[in-house]
Amino acid sequence: MYNPRQTRSDLLIVNLSDEDSSLKKELFFEPYETKIISFNWSTVKIKNQRLEILFYPKDLETVWNEFNTGSIAFTIKISDTDDLPATSTPGFEVILLILLIVLILLVYKKQILKK
Fold this sequence. Notes:
Number of helices: 1
Number of strands: 4
Radius of gyration: 31 Å
Shape: rod-shaped
Structural class: alpha+beta
């Protein structure tokens, strides 16, 4: 139910950080508003990467509560080529190559017999 006395939130800071860097965005929320906040983040690490997201009021004298403060942390696994499953059957190419050589020899032999 809409309450006309509700106003937009205090200015909030949303911070995304890992071991090497930190990205920050500042924003307001209107009553009953949902926002998608996106960051352009990259890493040179090739294994597990722990990210932490914090949100809190910019004015640190604001009373912190469950609606304007919180955090979440998660780990992203970044796959290396060694982690990926094989995409072909080992040895299949060798069998195909042998069959092709046999076919070429048969065609060549047939042409020699025609002469």
